[in-house]
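Example (one chain per record):
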Amino acid sequence: VQLVESGGGLVQPGESLGLSCTVSGSLSGFYAMGWYRQAPGKQRDLVAWITRVASANYTDSVKGRFTITINNDLDTVILQMNSLKPEDTAVYYCFLNLQVSSTLPDFWGQGTKVTVSS
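Predicted structure:
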C-alpha cells in the first residue's frame, strides 16, 4: 500500500491550496486517513483526520480554515486549506490508520511542501 500525495506549493497569506492523498494498492479496510505537518525544526503534528464514515476532526489552529473530505470510493482524501497563514508553512504528510487502536500511523505519504509567504 502506498499513499500518493499531490498539491502543495507556494502561496501568499490569505490564499487557498488543496492537498490530495490517494491510496495505491490493495487495502481491505481502514479506520482513518488524514494529514500531519512538520515545520522546519519542529516536531510532526496532527492537522486533520477523517474516518471511513466521514467523521472529520481538526487541530484547533486550523478549525474554520481547513476542510478534510473523503471520496465515495474511500481511496482519496482531500485537505482544502483556506485563509492560509505563514505559520501553516510545513511539509504535509498524508497518513492512514488501519485500526482505531493505532497509536501511530500505519502508512505515510512521501510529504508535500506548503509555503505561505508574501
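Caption: Residues 27 and 118 are 41 Å apart (CA to CA).
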